[in-house]
Structure formats: C-alpha cells, structure tokens
Specification:
This protein has one domain. Helix content is 80%, strand content 0%. It contains 14 helices and no strands. The chain has helices at residues 2-26, 33-55, 57-64, 68-92, 98-105, 108-118, 128-142, 152-177, 181-203, 208-213, 215-236, 242-249, 252-263, 270-296. Helix 1 packs across helix 13 (252-263) and helix 8 (152-177) crosses helix 12. The longest helix has 27 residues, at 270-296.
Amino acid sequence: MKKTISFTCLIICTLIWGTTFVAQDTGMDNIGPFTFNSTRFFVAFLAVSPFVFLFEKKKIITQIKNNINQFTKLMIPVGVFLFLGTVFQQVSLLYTNVANSAFFTIFYVPMVPIIIYFIFSEKLHWSIWPSVVACVAGGYFLSNMSDAAIRFGDGLVLIGALFWALHIIYIGKLVKKFDLPFFIALFQNLLVAILSFLLVIVFEEIDFSKIRLETFEILFAGILSGGAAFVLQLFGQRNIPPAPAAIVMSLEGVFAAIAAWIILSQILDFNNIIGCTLILGGVLLSQLVPIYEKNYK
C-alpha cells in the first residue's frame, strides 16, 4: 500500500513537471533565466511554509536535534544539485528548443543507475537496465530528434541531467533517514532561490515591472512545480528507490506531449505515440517485474 501511494505521488509529480515546461520557456519572454528561477523558487518556498508549521514543527526538533550534522551533509548537496540542475535546464532554453531539452533531460534516467551501481556500489534489479533503454529510446521518438543537431543548449541540458540524477539519488538517501518532506522541500527551495538571486545580482538586472509581466508563469512554476511537485517527489521516493523512481519520472515527457496535444492542439504523430509507449513500457517493467518475481519465487 505504501509503495502504491508513493508511486501515485511520483506520477502526479511528473504530470505537474510535464505541464510546467511551457511556463519555464515562456516565462523568460521579459526576464532572464536567473530572475525567473529566483522568483519561482521563492514563491515555492512561501507555498510550502504553511505546511511545515502545520505538520512538521514538532518533528523537525525531534528528528534533527541529535542528527544535525548528518542532515546538513545530505541537505546541502540536495539543494545545490537542484540549483545546478534548474540553472542549466533554464539557461538551455535560451539556446535550444523544448523538444531537444526534453530529450536530453531524460538522460538522468540512465545516469541514476550508473552512478548508484559504479560509484555507490549498490545492487540493482536486472529490470532497471532494459527499462532505462526503453525510456531513452522513448524520449528520442517523443522529442522528434531524428534530424536535430547537437547544439550548445543541448550540452547544457546534458550537464543539468547529471545534477538532476544526483538530486534524485541524494533525495533517496535523505528521505530514508528523515521523515520531513515539507521541511526538506522548504529548505531546498530557499537555497535555490538564494543562489539564483546571487546570479541575478551578477548577471542580470532587477526590474519588478518586467517580473510582473511573468506573474502567471512564475506562480504556476513556483506553486505547482517548485512547491507541490517537489513535495510529491519526496513522498514518492520514501518507498521507491532512486533508480526505479527516475524511470517513473521519465513520464514527464509523455505528460508534456499529451498536455501539448490537449491544450495547444499539437498533433501526436506516429513517432510520438511510439515514444509514449516505450516510456510507459519501461516504467511498467521496472515496477511490475520485481513484484512478480517476489510473489512467485
């Protein structure tokens, strides 16, 4: 039952992320990527704050009091990796299109099990590897990449994918030791907002009149993606290990394509349908095969 709830949380999380991609792109029509990220994650910080006081105020003291060093060693990397992942992804949209960005972002799916297996020496179920191949192939078909050239922006997305992978891995370690999903989300949102603001001071100008023009995109990306989705990711990864969790989250591309079909009336061609099918197959393989083997051994 717990795993089913976590799986549902990850599905809703990826649904939100998939529909937020357009807001991330259009949110830079009047402001720079660092300004967008800073305001977006500050809104996310404000959105999560009430839930911390309502549900975790007492738990924060009891869980962190005697484990402050351990919490800090895991929490700081989580915030920094999220910051770097979002920065590279956001800046990449200035140099490449959404289709390319969506495809290369999916490379966090193979990166997660590779890092876990070769660096952290953790064993993985055999179903992870064919699931990874299915998801990457699905991303290729879904993003119409067959005639696209590698560009500077695509390289930025690939670098960002590495940090997304590390973020997923360290989130998995953090939620195993601390049952504080709202507080963790609050902390990482604040850290990303502050670090992004430092980049604003160095590279961009603060113009509130221009920021107001992007109010809808900032609120959408902040409250739903930065607030709700990242909290759901934390709830989801409590009972699903990082490698299969990354495969589930690759559904982000599928939801983005479906949202574009429904909202923007963009037609899903045959390649897109193949891509959706491959990713869905990879997700089901990673989740159902271990359960089947466990029940019938």
